[in-house]
Every structure is written in C-alpha cells, then in structure tokens.
Amino acid sequence: MPDIRVSAAVIVDDAGRVLVVRKQGTTRFMQPGGKPEPDETPSQTLIRELHEELGLQLDEADLEPLGTFVSEAANEPGHRVIADAFSVSIAAAEVTVQAELAELRWITPADAGTLPLAPLSVEHLLPLAWPVTGR
How far apart are CA 101 and CA 54, in angstroms? Predict the structure, then answer.
C-alpha cells in the first residue's frame, strides 16, 4: 500500500472544540495540514499549510508534537497516510477557509458521530483531543 506523508494539526479552541476541515471535492472532514515541500521538516510543513489553508501565523514554539500515526488515507483509495501530528491552541475566530478548503467546523465529541471523518481523525487524532470522552 503506497504511503502519503503529511503533517496534521489537532487544533483546540478555548471551549474544547476541535477544528476539522473538508477539502474541495471531498466528503470527509479531517485535521488541517498537508504534504511537505522538498526539504521541509514536519513542523515547517504544518506552519506553511496552516497559513495557506486557514490564514494562521504560527511558529514552531506554537506546536506541541503528538507523535506519528498511520491510517488508511481518506481521499486516496489504496493508500495509507503517515501523519506527524501536532497540537495547537487558538481562538476560533482566528481561522478562515482559504486555498483548497471547502469548509471548516469546530466540533465537540457529540458532533464527531454525525460527520464523515477521515480514519486518521477517528482512530488517532480526535482521541488525543478528547481522552476523557473515550472518542
């Protein structure tokens, strides 16, 4: 199974909601982030992607490494995604849909059961954001 390397952000606001995004032409929501450019580190990739997709201005000190996780890719059948994940805390008002994004949503554990979510989000990243809820 071919691999897709990405950097992903678990962004939590002051109310404990987690940001998920949906790219244009897709149906599943996922954590924001994306694929690296040549010679980028995972944190550099994420900082660039969050700026392009959401208008965020972050630096490496704003990112807390969570680890590397592997799941089935959401939008590329027959592929798996290997994600370097980071935690980021911001205010909900700081983000706007840009670049290839179609929409964003701030979700709670209750919302997670009602949305089509990427396997990486369900299996690994949302449980890190909401460890007490068991999601």
Answer: 9
With tokens 């799941």, the residue in question is 71
Which residues, at least 6 apart from 87, have a Cβ–Cβ distance to it below 8 Å? 9, 10, 11, 12, 63, 64, 66, 128, 129
3-class SS of residue 118: coil
Nearest to 92 by CA among 37, 35, 15: 15
| Other CB atoms within 10 Å distance of the CB of residue 58 | 19
Domain boundaries, the chain: 3-129
Structure tokens at 98: 């840009």
| pLDDT tens, residue by residue, 72-127 | 998 888 899 999 999 988 776 678 888 788 999 999 999 988 999 999 999 999 99
So what's the architecture of 3-129 in CATH? Answer: Alpha-Beta Complex (3.90)
For residue 43 the two structure tokens come to: 């944190």
